[in-house]
Fold:
Amino acid sequence: NNNLLEIFFDQALEQAQRLDQHMDKTNQTIGPLYGLPISLKDQFHVKGVETSMAYVGWIGTFEGKKGTGKERNVNSELVRELLELGAIPIAKSDVYLIRKTSCPQTLWVRDPLCNGKAATD
Structure:
């Protein structure tokens, strides 16, 4: 199961360096999520990263539309807020995994109420 559509560790390391530089200058963190690596569903726009929602036809577009000037050039509101709170986006996951199961569980726990399936089954 290929769950990560976009992996942007280089961009994440740059963000981590900016946070470290801020800490060195001010001796303070930026927000309560300071340095927390996160992955997002591929429906959220991250500047510099493709958002396709796993639709091949959306690659190189902004929500399926070409030539908007927004392609790979905007952050979704949630992403903007997470960045302001100090989080570091590192990857975007396939929305299929989230649609596939409604059973909230860890990857290794099998729940009999969910037909014994784990989130990655």
